[in-house]
């Protein structure tokens, strides 16, 4: 079994009109056995959000290591980290472990505080950054997510429409993946507020 | 330099020994080419990045900045091409500052090959190095193990054979800039259409003694046709169990940081010391 | 390959016995009986019709063998049966040829067309008869039965559902297409707006809507899967009166 699919999980981020959304499932498994249905994979670093799928032990190590780094950045700079800067931080942090990588596939979503521009990015476990203007996906359901995103997403969605699209994309993708599901969190991020929602999902 | 952290290496090697396969990195199963002409050099690349059979990115940039007059086209493990070029770019900048001279393409090529040879092929970077410096026009390829070539026209990546078929049938001596660009674009198109690892658009870089021009999406031969219908959902289609709203003003009641250079007040966020 | 290589003559020559493992001095030769030729097929039923589609790219590794190889086949000139196969090209075609012959034989013997449920059972028998050296072919079989569109889908050893299915996808990009179909054909995870106990009822789709879904499913798969592209073949079988009509449409897909 591949380290990326021992614990299972799915994460997706999308760009809308002056907004971004990021969503994840809540399952934590040990191969096919489900251990927990309350294991969120999205972490906030100020206004920037990070989704992590892959090996659960590495999700925890990476998310806390980055928490330390972002807090140190705040102390030095006396300002919040922007999504673009955070993306470079994640990338170089992962590449430092080029020959002993963390088994994680990170996704970043946020709005640039200065320009108000929506921003999303994804990485492979070595830190190669995939900048995208539409959507990014990660996790054991990544194939399903690519298929549904490519079909259902369209440009210029308002926050509430973006919520429906990202939710339907995640829900239908994880229902076709035995290693993901069991609840979902969705964050809709706009310039002046963040809405976090818990979705009603299948419990099998 | 290098400065890699091997602390996960033993754990990962143990996992691999137990039969866990190694992770799949994003690779640029790519077509990249380069060609010299009278007065400069052209490099070009497609824009598809793949992870196995899946297209990870449709419009990525495979032409990497080294110095204003030296650029690299990269194939292989995407993270390695990205970081190797960034590292060499930084070293050349410092070298140029300490010598007070314009960086040379051979210097760049030598730094790259020594770095790659030192890592014994474990860094999967396959590069076309091109540039114009005080010694003249230069074009090289560097393979992951550190071997190099110096040729008037070069191709690399999974689409290298398709691209080379264009060069071998159409290349001639003393090309004009216009013809060299055309030839390189044609070679990339051959890769895009005949190699499954390559696709989407053509990016071109033209380097002469006077200036460098990078033309992103020089040719866009693969635009998606409009969808048959919209799949926008009526609001309220998705069932919600719980909802939490956080306004930014709420988040910022703990710290306010004023950025004096910006236009007006930029407020900071609540400092999170714990998730 | 990627670097200049000189064979190490000292260690490679003369060949020593420890090169042969437990098999002793005998060298075991092998052939690879299967290759993956990529491609995707997709079928959706309506009330009184059924649509079966496939892309026309035939590939091996990173190379394209053909941009015009059709995957959807009628099983007889007078028959409503249509079979699409994907997987290993040679096996996929062999299954189609075997089925075509069986359908023809059936007509000669019984002087009537083979019914879709009978063809479905026969296909299962053919696939299962190769249980220990399977034909590497994923099949979707459709036809008109009692004025209704019917669809059956199979795994490589012949497992299928006798009652048929509303829709199916198989092949390289089936992972990408199936959840889209769940959502748009079966309306999974969609509720009546703000009435979150009440799911949107599933109704048979009109033919035009089905064709639109098929095209969008394939253009999306083409964007994200390297083995899907070049052309799209859509065969529609529609019940009309006591008989049926079969039509074929071809569309262009991206060629990169």
TrEMBL record, chain A:
One GO term of the biological process aspect: proteasome-mediated ubiquitin-dependent protein catabolic process
Entry's Gene Ontology molecular function annotations: hydrolase activity
Classification via SUPFAM superfamilies: N-terminal nucleophile aminohydrolases (Ntn hydrolases) (SSF56235)
InterPro entries: Ntn_hydrolases_N (IPR029055), Proteasome_beta_3 (IPR033811), Proteasome_bsu_CS (IPR016050), Proteasome_sua/b (IPR001353), Proteasome_suB-type (IPR023333)
UniProt keyword annotations, A-Z: Cytoplasm, Hydrolase, Nucleus, Proteasome
Pfam families membership: Proteasome (PF00227)
Cell compartment(s), UniProt: Cytoplasm; Nucleus
Family per similarity comment: Belongs to the peptidase T1B family.
Matches recorded under PANTHER family: METALLOPROTEASE TLDD, PROTEASOME SUBUNIT BETA TYPE-3
Function comment: Component of the proteasome, a multicatalytic proteinase complex which is characterized by its ability to cleave peptides with Arg, Phe, Tyr, Leu, and Glu adjacent to the leaving group at neutral or slightly basic pH. The proteasome has an ATP-dependent proteolytic activity.
Protein name in the entry: Proteasome subunit beta
Native organism: Terfezia boudieri ATCC MYA-4762
TrEMBL record, chain B:
Domain of life (superkingdom): Eukaryota
GO cellular component, one term: proteasome core complex, beta-subunit complex
Localization terms from the record: Nucleus
Main EC class the enzyme belongs to: hydrolase
Active site as annotated: 30 (nucleophile)
Keywords of this entry: Cytoplasm, Hydrolase, Nucleus, Protease, Proteasome, Threonine protease
Annotated EC: 3.4.25.1
A GO biological process held by the record: proteolysis involved in protein catabolic process
Residues in Proteasome beta subunit C-terminal domain copies: 221-255
Reactions listed under catalytic activity: Cleavage of peptide bonds with very broad specificity
GO molecular function: threonine-type endopeptidase activity
UniProt-listed InterPro entries: Ntn_hydrolases_N, Pept_T1A_subB, Proteasome_bsu_C, Proteasome_sua/b, Proteasome_suB-type
Family matches, as Pfam families: Pr_beta_C, Proteasome
The protein's assembly and partners: The 26S proteasome consists of a 20S proteasome core and two 19S regulatory subunits. The 20S proteasome core is composed of 28 subunits that are arranged in four stacked rings, resulting in a barrel-shaped structure. The two end rings are each formed by seven alpha subunits, and the two central rings are each formed by seven beta subunits. The catalytic chamber with the active sites is on the inside of the barrel.
The protein's name: proteasome endopeptidase complex
UniProt organism field: Terfezia boudieri ATCC MYA-4762
UniProtKB/TrEMBL annotation, chain C:
GO terms for MF: hydrolase activity
Nucleotide-binding recorded as keyword: no
A GO biological process held by the record: proteolysis involved in protein catabolic process
Subcellular compartments: Nucleus
Keywords attached to this entry: Cytoplasm, Hydrolase, Nucleus, Proteasome
Entry's Gene Ontology cellular component terms: cytoplasm; nucleus; proteasome core complex
Protein name: N-terminal nucleophile aminohydrolase
């Amino acid at each position: 079994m591949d380290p990326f699919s021992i614990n299972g999980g799915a994460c997706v981020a999308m760009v809308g009109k002056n907004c971004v959304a990021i969503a994840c499932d809540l399952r934590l498994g040990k191969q096919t056995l489900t251990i927990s249905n309350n294991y969120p994979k999205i972490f906030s670093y100020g206004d920037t959000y990070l989704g992590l799928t892959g090996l659960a032990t590495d999700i925890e190590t990476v998310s806390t290591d980055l928490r330390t780094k972002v807090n140190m950045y705040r102390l030095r700079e006396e300002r919040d980290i922007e999504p673009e800067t955070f993306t470079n931080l994640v990338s170089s942090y992962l590449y430092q472990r080029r020959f002993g990588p963390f088994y994680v596939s990170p996704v970043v979503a946020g709005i640039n505080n200065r320009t108000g521009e929506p921003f999303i990015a994804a990485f492979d476990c070595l830190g190669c950054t995939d900048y995208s203007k539409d959507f990014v996906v990660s996790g054991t359901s990544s194939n399903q997510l690519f298929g549904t995103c490519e079909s259902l997403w369209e440009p210029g969605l308002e926050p509430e429409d973006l919520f429906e699209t990202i939710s339907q994309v995640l829900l239908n993708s994880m229902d076709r993946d035995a290693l993901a599901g069991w609840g979902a969190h969705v964050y809709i991020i706009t310039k002046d507020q963040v809405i976090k929602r818990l979705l009603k999902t299948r419990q099998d | 330099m290098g400065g890699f952290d091997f602390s996960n290496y033993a754990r990962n090697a143990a996992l691999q020994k137990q039969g866990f396969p190694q992770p799949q990195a994003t690779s640029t199963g790519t077509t990249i080419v380069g060609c010299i002409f009278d007065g400069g050099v052209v490099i070009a690349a497609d824009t598809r990045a793949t992870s196995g059979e899946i297209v990870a990115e449709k419009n990525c940039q495979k032409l990497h900045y080294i110095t204003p007059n030296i650029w690299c086209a990269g194939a292989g493990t995407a993270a390695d091409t990205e970081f190797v070029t960034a590292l060499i770019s930084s070293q050349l900048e410092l070298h140029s500052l300490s010598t007070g001279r314009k960086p040379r393409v051979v210097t760049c090529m030598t730094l790259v090959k020594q770095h790659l040879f030192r890592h014994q092929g474990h860094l999967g970077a396959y590069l076309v190095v091109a540039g114009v410096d005080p010694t003249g026009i230069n074009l090289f390829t560097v393979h992951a193990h550190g071997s190099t070539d110096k040729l008037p026209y070069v191709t690399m990546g999974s689409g290298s054979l398709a691209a080379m078929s264009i060069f071998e049938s159409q290349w001639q001596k003393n090309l004009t800039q216009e013809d060299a660009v055309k030839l390189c674009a044609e070679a990339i198109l051959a890769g895009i259409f005949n190699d499954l690892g390559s696709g989407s658009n053509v990016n071109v870089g033209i380097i002469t003694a006077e200036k460098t021009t990078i033309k992103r999406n020089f040719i866009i031969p693969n635009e998606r046709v409009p969808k048959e219908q919209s799949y926008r959902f009526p609001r309220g289609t998705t069932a919600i169990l719980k909802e939490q709203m956080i306004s930014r003003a709420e988040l910022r009641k703990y710290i306010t940081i004023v950025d004096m250079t910006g236009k007006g007040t930029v407020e900071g966020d609540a400092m999170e010391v714990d998730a | 390959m990627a670097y200049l290589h000189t064979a190490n003559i000292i260690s490679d020559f003369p060949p020593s016995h420890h090169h042969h493992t437990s098999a002793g001095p005998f060298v075991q030769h092998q052939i690879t009986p299967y290759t993956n030729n990529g491609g995707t097929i997709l079928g959706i039923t309506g009330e009184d019709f059924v649509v079966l589609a496939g892309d026309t790219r035939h590939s091996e590794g990173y190379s394209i063998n053909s941009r015009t190889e059709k995957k959807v086949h009628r099983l007889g000139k007078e028959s409503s049966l249509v079979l699409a196969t994907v997987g290993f090209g040679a096996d996929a075609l062999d299954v189609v040829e075997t089925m075509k012959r069986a359908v023809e034989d059936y007509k000669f013997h019984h002087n009537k067309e083979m019914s879709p449920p009978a063809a479905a059972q026969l296909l299962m028998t053919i696939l299962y008869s190769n249980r220990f050296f399977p034909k590497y072919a994923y099949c979707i079989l459709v036809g008109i039965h009692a004025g209704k569109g019917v669809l059956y889908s199979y795994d490589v050893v012949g497992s299928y559902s006798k009652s048929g299915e509303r829709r199916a996808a198989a092949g390289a990009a089936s992972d990408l297409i199936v959840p889209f179909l769940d959502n748009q054909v079966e309306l999974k995870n969609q509720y009546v707006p703000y009435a979150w106990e009440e799911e949107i009822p599933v109704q048979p789709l009109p033919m035009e809507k089905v064709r639109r879904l098929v095209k969008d499913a394939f253009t999306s798969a083409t964007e994200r899967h390297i083995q899907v592209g070049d052309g799209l073949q859509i065969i529609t079988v529609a019940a009309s009166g006591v008989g049926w009509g079969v039509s074929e449409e071809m569309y262009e897909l991206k060629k990169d």
